[in-house]
Amino acid sequence: MASSENIIQSLIAKNRSGINSGIASLCSANIYVIKAALRFAKENNIPLLIEATSNQVNQFGGYTGYTPQDFKELVFQCAANEQFPAEKVILGGDHLGPNAWQDKNSHEALLKSENLVAAYVAAGFSKIHLDASMKCADDGKLEEPLSPEIIAERTARLCKAAESSYDNTKAMSHKPNYIIGTDVPIPGGMQEEHSSVRITTAAEVEETVALTRKAFEKYNLHDAWERVIGVVVQPGVEFGDTTVLEYEPEKTKELVSAVLQYDNIVYEAHSTDYQTKESLRRMVQDHFAILKVGPWLTYAFREAIFALATIEKELFLGIQNMQLSRIHEILESRMNENPIYWKKYYTGNPQKISFSKKYSYSDRVRYYWTDKVIDTALTHLLSNLTSTSIPLTLLSQYLPDEYDALREGRIANNPQELIYSKISHVLQTYHYATTEVIS
Q1: Would you give the DSSP letter of residue 147?
Q2: Are 367 and 345 in contact, with CB atoms under 8 Å apart?
Q3: Which pLDDT band, with edges at 50, 70 and 90, does 437 fall under?
Q4: What values do phi and psi take at 412, rounded to 5?
Q5: 365 touches 358 (CB < 8 A)
Q6: Which residues contact 225 (CB under 8 A, 6 or more apart)?
Q7: Could you write out the DSSP letters of every residue in 175-229?
């Protein structure tokens, strides 16, 4: 079996040759998303790229509590449980740099960032996005971006740390592949609704590549440069609370042409969530071969939970000695008690904020599913629904796609299977977009 390095490089080589070939990068630590993705990849005999972000997973635990080694063990234990081949799992690190330490001075933040990258590589993460674009406390005015030269210099430092970590640990059978570039929107979607976003220019791509290559050469990273496989750009796709900015290929022609001058490099596109399957497929054809998706996966998970909670009420409300999970109410209560993950994202009157907390495309609720009180309510919900057979009529009403899958014998009638099935609809969209059609 090919190594994960060969898998992703093979996909990129096909894309560069004009074949509709790419890969979805799943950015989520949600256990249901991970299990659904493993099942989907196994059913379709495809590799699986799962990424963790620097604020989500880092050497101090991140907001998930996972170190890179912890996250690797979680994914590979799930893979073993699902009997999915470990050699087809590709682990990636996203936005690895000063993101979590922007309140520190640059010296301290860069040291922590180097340790972060080293920890990812030591744990066996083979796809590394080096992102040094974030300003630190002593980098001047926040509204003014860092100079491209400083970003390139810091990127090379991070790469040096990654290479040293690999040399010291040999944690995987091949050296890391790298993603460079920083032209991405705020993670998690727009904080305001807009009708368009600024598209990366060809000149900016050329500057990023030239400066980063020069910095790599300064640090004697010639071999590492040959393993740079992608550049992050903004192709004009984005989403807000209630809107999605669709891919418009006529606006990216100059950008698409620019990447063809480089060997073995494609574009990586972030915030591709909620695009139509045809838009995503066209993006892959235009050499945006690595498609990041995150909130859409947990958005589908949330849809499944809300549908199941409604089914629970229909089945058990008013039945003596039957305690409902009350997950809707508990979720909102816990979000209000700890508003750190949504407060600066949702604005407006109380009704609008309440709506956004539940239904926004940015899906800030995804940060709360590991809350112990909420997790207990979720366990209660699944236990209630496992104690009975959910009537087909209720599935038809609240989970119609799962109703069809159940009737056709593709899934079983239990809440976990229904959740996995709901998430798989998103996975199927990306599978369509990134897979070569064999005639």
Answers
A1: P
A2: no
A3: low
A4: -95, 160
A5: yes
A6: 213, 216, 217
A7: PPEEEE------TTS-SS--S--PPPPHHHHHHHHHHHHHHHHHTT-HHHHTTEE
- The CA-based dihedral angle spanning residues 269, 275, 281, 285, taken in that order and rounded to the nearest 10 degrees: -40
- pLDDT of residue 439 exceeding 50, the answer is no
Could you read off the pLDDT of 163-184 as tens digits, one per residue? Answer: 999 999 999 989 999 999 987 5
Is residue 335 exposed (0-12), middle (13-18) or buried (19+ Cβ within 10 Å)? Answer: buried
* Cβ 299 vs Cβ 188: under 8 Å: no
Q: How far apart are CA 203 and CA 231, in angstroms?
A: 13
Tell me how far apart the alpha carbons of residues 21 and 102 are, in angstroms, rounded to a whole number: 36
DSSP states of 32-67 as a string?
HHHHHHHHHHHHHT--EEEEEETTTB-TT-TTTTB-
Q: What is the pLDDT of residues 194-213, one digit of tens each?
A: 667 899 999 999 999 999 99
The string of DSSP codes covering 263-295 is: TT-EEEE---TT--HHHHHHHHHTT--EEEE-H
Average pLDDT over residues 366-386: 97
pTM, whole model, 2 decimals?
A: 0.95
Q: Is a pLDDT exceeding 60 seen at residue 112? A: yes
Closest CA to 309 of 410, 418, 406, 420: 418
Would you place residue 142 in the very low, low, confident or very high pLDDT band (cuts 50, 70, 90)? confident
Percent of the chain's residues with pLDDT above 70: 95
Answer whether 237's CB lies under 8 Å from 268's CB.
no
Among candidate residues 435, 72, 14, 2, the one with its CA nearest the CA of residue 229: 14
Please name which of 238, 244, 356, 366 lies closest in space to residue 295, comparing C-alpha atoms. 366
Say whether pLDDT at 4 is over 80.
no
SS3 91: strand
What is Dmax (Cα atoms) for the chain? 73
Copy the structure tokens of residue 67.
């170190």
The helices-and-strands tally (H runs, E runs) of the chain is: 16, 10
Please choose, from the candidates 382, 418, 426, the residue with its C-alpha nearest in 3D space to the C-alpha of residue 398.
Answer: 418
**Which segment of 194-198, 325-329, 381-385 scores lowest on mean pLDDT?**
194-198
d(CA 294, CA 289): 16
Angstrom distances, CA of residue 274 to CA of 48, 245, 401, 402, 417: 20, 9, 18, 20, 23
